[in-house]
Design goal:
This is Phosphatidate cytidylyltransferase. This protein is mostly helical. It is built from 9 helices and no strands.
């Protein structure tokens, strides 16, 4: 399926669906959205584990799939006050300890692959589980429906504008990053520009909610825009390293779940911390 078709489907189906979920999903502390984050955490972790298996690094898929779901669950319970604020750090520490314990078992007839298995398992614990949990943190903010909508627009308009700028004017600047030779510098700048425009525009569309200064909002757009693009490049590097074309096949025409949420995953932490300042009137 061509890139244009994929983006048409994104705008016709995915973005309206997500927008409806965000605007009308404030039920039980955004339970519908957080259930989606939990599912994405599980599926994304399973796909990460699959990429390591393709490299003959046999991480425990079941354990990591469950962990990818549990981290957003614990985060949601934490932000709604069901458990102590320090519970997530304790839980992640416990999971890391369990990874070490599981790795005491030899891989095959030797311990040669145990260190790669430990490292890969901890990486899968963080990406996507911990990164995705920042979307759950966003749902705990005041006016979170509006903030989530801004976040989604910053990320997906970044991607679309980067593709458009790259297609129209970026042919001569392609290959500026080796991991994705079709990406262009012009596309990169076009994507970041779109993110900055969305961030600054939010100040005028929602003046009672987004009260930060214009320079801070420009910074928000740059941080979220750059991390969105880095997220796409990082996942491309992972796929190249593991020798797979797509992270999975769950979404017809687009590949795996990680192929569709890689930008969201990377942009969420930076966006969360800067939006805290932007809604505090700084």
């Amino acid at each position: 399926m061509k890139n244009l078709t994929k983006r048409i489907l994104l705008f016709v189906i995915a973005i309206p669906g997500l927008s409806a979920l965000i605007l009308f999903g404030n039920v039980l502390n955004f339970l519908p959205i957080n259930l989606l984050v939990i599912i994405l955490g599980a599926l994304g972790s399973r796909e990460m584990a699959g990429m390591f298996h393709a490299m003959d690094i046999k991480v425990n898929k079941t354990f990591l799939t469950v962990s990818g779901a549990l981290i957003p669950i614990i985060t949601w319970m934490q932000v709604i006050g069901m458990i102590n604020p320090g519970s997530l750090l304790f839980f992640i520490t416990l999971l890391v300890i369990l990874i070490f314990v599981i790795s005491l078992k030899p891989s095959g007839d030797s311990f040669e692959k145990n260190l790669p298995v430990m490292s890969a398992s901890i990486m899968t614990l963080i990406y996507p589980g911990v990164f995705l949990s920042y979307i759950t943190r966003i749902t705990s903010l005041p006016y979170s429906s509006v903030i989530l909508l801004i976040f989604m627009c910053i990320v997906y308009l970044n991607d679309s504008n980067a593709w458009l700028f790259g297609m129209l004017w970026g042919k001569k600047s392609r290959g500026f990053v080796a991991v994705s030779p079709n990406k262009s510098l012009v596309g990169f700048l076009g994507g970041v520009l779109a993110s900055v425009i969305v961030a600054v525009s939010s100040r005028f569309i929602f003046p009672d909610i987004i009260t930060g200064s214009i320079p801070l909002l420009i910074g928000l757009g740059i941080v979220a825009g750059v991390t969105s693009i880095i997220g796409d490049l990082v996942e491309s590097a992972m796929k190249r390293s593991s020798g797979v074309k797509d992270s999975g096949s769950i979404i017809p025409g687009r590949g795996g779940m990680l192929d569709s949420i890689d930008s969201l995953i990377f942009a969420a932490p930076g966006f969360y911390y800067v939006i805290l300042l932007a809604t505090a009137g700084l």
